[in-house]
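Sequence and fold:
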Amino acid sequence: MTRIALLDRQNMTPGQARLWDAATADPEAPRGGPYPIYIRLPRLFEALHKLRACLAAGPLNLRERQIVNLTVARHWNARYPWFAQVRRSRAAGISDDAIDAINARTTPDLADPRERTCHAVACALLADKTLSEAAYDAAKRALGENDLIGLIAQIGNFSMTCLSANAFDLIPQADNPTPLKE
């Protein structure tokens, strides 16, 4: 049970429905989690949809974004986002071993140096609330400044998703195949 009612399409105002229809016309657009909550504030919903589209268009690729999202969901113990991101990560080709390592709060064995950097930066930033000079310099070398900006934005954006899911007590389906480890 969530702490707030999720609006169904038929219960939205005409303005909310218009925004919802435009956003969900994209087959990749999220429809669950906090997104039905955000529609209560149409300007916020619209801005978040645009931010999500901007981040999806680059500079991080899908696998890099998924590594970040898993790491962020694990950090915040966000059950619904974790559930949704495990599905998306598997579809993006991220191995169950990597997913399980993130779930266990250990470093996943990632062959791609950019993916390793995305995980390391997300872990460091979330744990320490900043990046050390060494971590920043390593990330800048691996990604470049512009892609590092995109990485930080992805971490912040998905942290908001996780915090919203936690605050409103959104829970995954009962048959969640990969629950968060305690």
